[in-house]
Amino acid sequence: MGNQPDKIRVSAGEDLLAFIPHMVGYWPNRSIVCIGMSGKRLRATMRLDLPAEDYSEVHRFAEIAASQLSSDPDADGCLIAIFGNEDWIAPKQIPHAQTYSALRMALAEVGLPVRDAWFVGPDHWRSLECTDAGCCSWPGKDNSAIRESFVNTEFIYRGSLVRESPAEQIQELIAVEDEAFAASVLAAGEEYREPLAQRGLGEEQMAVTLGAWEHSLTRWPTTPDASMTAFLLASLADTTIRDIVMVALATTPNHAFTGAMALRLVEEDEGELHVPHAWHGGNQAASCSVHVESYADTTYLYACRDFGNILIGEISDGDGRIKGPDWQRLEKAQLLLQFLCRTTRGADKAPVLCILGWIQWCKGRGTWAGTYFQQCQAFQPGYRLASMLDQLLAIGHIASCAKDERTAWHGSSNESSEEKAA
């Protein structure tokens, strides 16, 4: 689901249909797009894969879609656009009629009656609500009317471009760019993989690891050298360390460290500490500033609760505290993680892809999240966290932080416009 930009007046069907690709970030294919409305104002945009014509659980699909869109408490109606792979030629054969009917019913039941709907084929579009050939002829208006509309022109003027699908964009974002650097990272990783996998949860070693991530995040867009890159990748091989890093990226390293200590995830150190080369002049990382915030009961309680909530996209909302992801940190972390992806071809790419998918899931961008999770499992089949989160997407579960105005992501100039909606 995506958030809307500054006001742009939408006055005709072609304007609304031009609005959709800019919100989704690409021209949808075999998709249903629903847009919530509050009065005459457009609200959240949601895109879902169009189910097959013979899909036996079409009512379940419709219930999931309605549940997702109704998470916006201010919405009181909706618009629907079905993007198919064939034009609507036969007047009496409404495209995806069973799905459309079930969706209308499910949306009405949650208080979001459909106010208008369109079908968009490869070359033509027309209203799903009007069957009068004298008013809306078949196969409909040429899609050039959408591309030439005022809304499309206004979006382009504002710098928004409609690009290829998320799968194609993600492939570009994570592809290895510098073969020589990737080879250096691979060689440097030999020093860190086994020690961090076996002893990475030691208290001082964990502080070093979180310090390394914080150092790299703080220095971005200066990219880590081969040794630091290899260290960061190796640290994610242990799933508990990965979880602690995720919480640190969404909050602070100290808060994540405190939560990990409170949950007794951190162990006693064994053996020497492992530190990235040339970081703070070498072994100074052993005394990095990552530390427990406080041993007070309330601090431990909050850190413990926040740790679990952040990982599952929930929010802490007690005693006047509202704790959700720090989006400024996560957006910078997203760029760092994409850089890490571009430095390796191996299985160590999987946890990085999983975290990237998790960030998108927390943003409420299901299409992007699902694509990252699928990419993760392509590099490491059966990767558990990616599989679990992908299953949550499949049943329509949206991270709570994405549904709460206080903690939801509202877009940022750090990302291109085509990356700002699901």
Automatic annotation (TrEMBL):
Protein name: DUF4192 domain-containing protein
Species of origin: Arthrobacter psychrolactophilus
Lineage summary: Bacteria, Bacillati, Actinomycetota, Actinomycetes, Micrococcales
